[in-house]
Design brief:
By secondary structure, the protein is α/β, with parallel strands linked by helices. Helix content is 50%, strand content 14%. It is elongated and about 65 Å long.
């Protein structure tokens, strides 16, 4: 992407972030200590945007680390973060998705409850089917890049960088929307993941009392003294990152209730193995 195109996209991104926070040009300018015409010129690409402008606005708008990294990349600034592998995919990643990837990479533990197999645990065929049947089907070229992103996200689990506690509905063992062969490979992948010392996988049977659960909820707990827990909530047609303490407490309680209905890890492994043999 040419520098001029970067500048245009950067201005558009600054405007989007301001509007997303419900701020007028005047209100945002006041926070930074600028004349409102200055911010207007930056957003409309009439004034060259520099690192000092981005830093000032990031502070005033309360931007997250992932958002700042995104802006720095548009500026062409070297962040010094060699682990930020997803920078090359920025054209197909939403700011929220980048934030999720950053949170996963910095988490000490991840707890997830789901009616579908979550992205961190998906085998390639299952991941492709999930992506192409989503509410927002991407272009073929974008789909391939998003599949690459999903595969690389999984490395925090397979490399043992994070503890993963997954509680899944029995329906994930039976739902063959991805095709018979892809489901077989997915079931085997779940068995393989369950062998990792940092992964705990349990299944909630259909007939378990009080086990109602919809969608997917993921709690990302940070390293000690590295911030607060964030919830990633997925539902039909969208998703959200939530950090309100009361909301986190409620979701943690819901996951605990769901987990109480789950089988042991050994019994869950037996259920997956039997389903694989029958498929």
């Amino acid at each position: 992407m040419r520098p001029a195109a970067n500048q245009k996209k950067l201005g558009e991104e600054l405007r989007r972030l301001r509007v997303e926070r419900g701020l007028t040009v005047e209100a945002a300018s006041t926070r930074v200590g600028w004349d409102k015409s200055k911010l207007s010129r930056l957003e409309t690409n009439k004034t060259l945007i520099g690192k000092q402008h981005v830093d000032a606005l990031a502070e005033a708008l309360g931007l997250t680390s992932a958002m700042r990294l995104r802006l720095d990349r548009l500026l062409g600034v070297e962040t010094g973060e060699s682990g930020i592998w997803w920078g090359r995919y920025q054209d197909v990643l939403s700011p929220q998705y980048e934030e999720l990837i950053l949170l996963e990479s910095q988490a000490a533990s991840i707890e997830v409850a789901a009616m579908l197999i979550p992205g961190l645990m998906q085998a390639p065929g299952y991941a492709q089917a999930t992506l192409l049947q989503s509410a927002f089907v991407p272009d073929p070229e974008d789909a391939e890049m998003l599949l690459d992103v999903r595969r690389q996200r999984q490395q925090v689990v397979t490399a043992g960088a994070v503890s993963l506690l997954a509680t899944l509905s029995e329906s994930v063992l039976l739902n063959a929307f991805c095709g018979r062969v892809a489901l077989q490979r997915q079931l085997q992948y779940l068995l393989d993941l369950g062998q990792l010392p940092n992964v705990s996988l349990r299944i909630v049977p259909y007939d378990a009392p009080g086990a109602a659960f919809t969608g997917t909820v993921t709690l990302l707990d940070p390293q000690p003294d590295a911030g607060a827990t964030v919830a990633y909530v997925e539902y039909e047609g969208g998703s959200q990152l939530l950090s309100d303490p009361r909301t986190i407490k409620r979701y943690r309680r819901n996951l605990a209730y769901f987990g109480q209905a789950a089988c042991s890890e050994a019994e869950s492994r037996r259920m997956i193995s039997e389903r694989l043999e029958d498929s």
